[in-house]
Amino acid sequence: MTQQQEILSTTKQNVIFCDFDGTITVNDNIVAIIKHFNPPGWETIVDDIIQQRKSIQEGVGELFRLLPTSMKDEVIDYAISNVRIREGFEQMLEFTRQHDIEFYVTSGGIDFFVYPVLARFGIPEDHIYCNGSDFTGDRIEITWPHPCGDKCSNNCGMCKPTIMHRFPTDRHHRILIGDSVTDFEGAKIADVVFSRSHLTTKCEELGLAHHEFENFHDIVATMQNKEAKQQ
């Protein structure tokens, strides 16, 4: 944490925007899928995304275009079976229910693994924002149902700032939980940031207040501590 923050608001609706890959899950599933099937040239594309030489939409689209749609079943089966959920996620969801905190998944991941994995936790699909997929052509195509709006021009693919702007700050206290490049822009407009990995590095570079976490128990503990002080 870089400075004192109000973790939970007592006057506004608290709302969480939580990343999926590398946050809810231990591993980054997009990278894991591509690495597993190992099409030529994927390493350069991933590095270009991380270093922000390519936009997320451009880079992720290129990655999946390396895979033929004939591998659809293999790709989906591997993606779902490879997922490992970060410790404390169920407890985090229970905490949000008990304290009337709205919980949304805002993911740069793909529908064919995000929806089935989250279904077991009872998160409704209208609380999940992610990218889509198209297996009708020769190559896997990623679709982008949640593009950047008027206030963002970063070609995010699944634009987290655009989703967050639907929850105006006069009524909502916006909390972002994330780990990587897909969370950079959202972190800039969040009231509170919980970070790990690349997002922590970016917050430090930009001087953004943030709370580092390793698992969801860490996040719940921070919120509970603040709640206790408010009582």
TrEMBL record:
Pfam families in the cross-refs: HAD (PF12710)
- Any idea of its EC number? 3.1.3.87
Q: Which UniProt keywords are given for this protein, alphabetically ordered?
A: Amino-acid biosynthesis, Hydrolase, Methionine biosynthesis
* InterPro entries per record: HAD-like_hydrolase_phosphatase, HAD-like_sf, HAD-SF_hydro_IB_MtnX, HAD_hydro_PyrdxlP_Pase-like, HAD_sf
- Record's keyword annotation contains Amino-acid biosynthesis: yes
Q: Which GO terms describe its molecular function?
A: 2-hydroxy-3-keto-5-methylthiopentenyl-1-phosphate phosphatase activity
Q: Where are its TM segments located?
A: none
- Which HAMAP family does this UniProt record tie to the protein? Salvage_MtnX
Q: What does this protein do?
A: Dephosphorylates 2-hydroxy-3-keto-5-methylthiopentenyl-1-phosphate (HK-MTPenyl-1-P) yielding 1,2-dihydroxy-3-keto-5-methylthiopentene (DHK-MTPene).
Indicate the family of this protein.
Belongs to the HAD-like hydrolase superfamily. MtnX family.
Entry protein name: 2-hydroxy-3-keto-5-methylthiopentenyl-1-phosphate phosphatase
The organism encoding this protein is Paenibacillus phyllosphaerae
Q: Which gene encodes it?
A: mtnX
